[in-house]
């Protein structure tokens, strides 16, 4: 198995089930207050100028996150530098596994023992906002004059729930295309021209097959089969859900076309059947396959393998348009039973400072959300991250709908798994998954908003 510590943001299917259970059950513990309208910290208090500076008495801030992988030391270094430059703010970082984090945070907030500031993925913002675990940050954006044009528009919009901003985006971590140069060379493929479209991809796979190589392994698990499906769905012109997140759309013709293309790689001998979790990435590192669709975090994994000759590129365009799945870490501020204006203001200063200094964070395997950082010469020097940043104009995120993690885990991921393992036809798998998703979406609507 791949070392989970090196995976950074990578979650196993079991992690996702635990995470979703925490989002669905633990949030209810914190949700007794009802919603943002009943949140004593929702208006941001009177803690100063929204993040530009803090001149109050010294405060200690509890900062929780799930950066247990290779990215963790980069964030810890940033925290230490921040503390050295802000003598009246002392940030204490607490790190735990993401699945544990999303379970513990709501309960801690409900008991009055929660952190002051934290990190959340975009697909968790809606759930935690709906149950008042986190507070709106519109004043931060306003007072710092932050606007959509300062960030990638898609990630800026992903931080909004119920017409209020709950997340300040730190980064983006998209899916990318990794190619094994050793395997490509043995098959007579041009190492300097990895496939960029469907014809090139399928032609390369045929060349590899002629040399006895199954070139593109299809994994039935979310990492990375589910993320690959979502990317292809967008490439074929489809979408996951409708605009308000009340209906699943992934069972559309575009979805069927996307999953059928994946299944055909198995049927046409380009992938083994029923591969285990991580088998694709292990085979790639052992020169057994040529192509791997994986997250930007794989840069760290492959970089540590000194025997591996590899490259990275934007995802090939298999459908009619470009598209790629992405996730994002957002800064959030937690609800407090007794809001402390000094801590609230200090938290905003911390968030703003890390955002402005996120180039160092990018070195851990991220694309900065802030446009000015991405356009800096320092980021251009991060060659691999810069390559995957070419995808920023067409990245897509799971919408910030309350309980969407449950839907992904229990409906979409199951549908992809059943199709890739050939238990159901692509169309039947997606239709069944979409029907299940619709029921879950309605249950979540009543649970979180009813």
Secondary structure topology:
Blueprint: H1 4-7, H2 13-30, E1 59-65, H3 72-85, E2 89-95, H4 98-110, E3 117-121, H5 122-130, H6 138-143, H7 153-157, E4 160-161, E5 164-165, E6 168-169, E7 171-180, H8 181-186, H9 198-210, H10 222-235, H11 253-267, H12 279-285, E8 291-295, H13 298-303, E9 310-313, E10 324-327, E11 329-333, H14 341-356, H15 359-362, E12 367-368, H16 371-374, H17 377-380, H18 383-389, E13 395-396, H19 404-420, H20 426-448
Helix pairs in contact: 2-4, 2-19, 10-11, 10-19, 19-20
Explained architecture:
- 56% of the residues are buried.
- The protein folds into two domains: 4-170 and 328-357, D-Maltodextrin-Binding Protein, domain 2, CATH 3.40.190; 174-326 and 402-448, D-Maltodextrin-Binding Protein, domain 2, CATH 3.40.190.
- With 450 residues, it is α+β, with helices and mostly antiparallel strands.
- α2 runs antiparallel to α19 and α10 packs across α11.
- 46% of the residues lie in helices and 13% in strands.
- The protein has helices at residues 4-7, 13-30, 72-85, 98-110, 122-130, 138-143, 153-157, 181-186, 198-210, 222-235, 253-267, 279-285, 298-303, 341-356, 359-362, 371-374, 377-380, 383-389, 404-420, 426-448; strands spanning 59-65, 89-95, 117-121, 160-161, 164-165, 168-169, 171-180, 291-295, 310-313, 324-327, 329-333, 367-368, 395-396.
């Amino acid at each position: 198995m791949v070392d989970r510590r090196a995976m950074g943001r990578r979650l196993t299917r079991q992690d996702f089930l635990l995470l979703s259970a925490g989002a669905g059950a633990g949030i209810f513990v914190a949700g007794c207050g009802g919603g943002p309208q009943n949140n004593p910290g929702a208006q941001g208090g009177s803690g100063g100028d929204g993040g530009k500076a803090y001149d109050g008495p010294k405060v200690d801030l509890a900062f929780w996150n799930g950066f247990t992988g290779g990215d963790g030391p980069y964030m810890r270094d940033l925290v230490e530098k921040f503390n050295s430059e802000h003598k009246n703010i002392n940030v204490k970082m607490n790190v735990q596994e993401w699945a544990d984090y999303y379970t513990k945070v709501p309960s801690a907030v409900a008991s009055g023992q929660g952190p002051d500031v934290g990190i959340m993925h975009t697909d968790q913002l809606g759930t935690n906002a709906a149950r008042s675990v986190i507070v709106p940050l519109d004043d931060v954006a306003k007072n710092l004059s932050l606007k959509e044009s300062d960030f990638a528009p898609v990630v800026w919009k992903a931080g909004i729930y119920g017409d209020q901003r709950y997340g300040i985006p730190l980064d983006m971590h998209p899916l990318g295309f990794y190619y094994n140069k050793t395997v490509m060379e043995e098959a007579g493929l041009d190492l300097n021209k990895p496939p960029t479209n469907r014809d090139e991809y399928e032609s390369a796979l045929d060349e590899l097959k002629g040399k006895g190589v199954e070139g593109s392994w299809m994994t039935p698990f979310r990492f990375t089969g589910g993320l690959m499906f979502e990317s292809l769905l967008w490439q074929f012109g489809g979408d996951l859900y409708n605009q308000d997140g009340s209906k699943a759309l992934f069972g559309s013709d575009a979805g069927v076309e996307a999953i059928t293309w994946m299944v055909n790689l198995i049927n046409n001998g380009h992938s083994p059947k029923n591969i285990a979790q991580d088998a694709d990435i292990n085979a790639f590192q052992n020169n057994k396959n040529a192509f791997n669709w994986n997250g930007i975090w794989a840069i760290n994994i492959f970089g540590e393998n000194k025997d591996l000759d590899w490259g990275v590129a934007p995802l090939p365009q298999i459908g009619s348009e470009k598209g790629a799945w992405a996730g994002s870490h957002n800064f959030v501020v937690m609800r407090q039973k007794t809001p402390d204006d000094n801590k609230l203001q200090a938290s905003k200063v911390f968030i703003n400072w890390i955002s402005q200094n996120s180039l160092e964070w990018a070195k851990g395997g991220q694309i900065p959300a802030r446009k000015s950082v991405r356009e800096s010469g320092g980021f251009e020097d991060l060659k691999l991250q810069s390559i995957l940043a070419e995808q920023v104009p067409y990245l897509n995120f799971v919408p910030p709908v309350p309980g969407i993690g449950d839907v992904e885990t229990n409906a979409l991921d199951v549908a992809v798994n059943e199709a890739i393992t050939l238990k159901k036809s692509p169309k039947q798998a997606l239709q069944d998954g979409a029907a299940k998703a619709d029921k879950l979406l309605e249950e979540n609507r009543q649970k979180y908003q009813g």
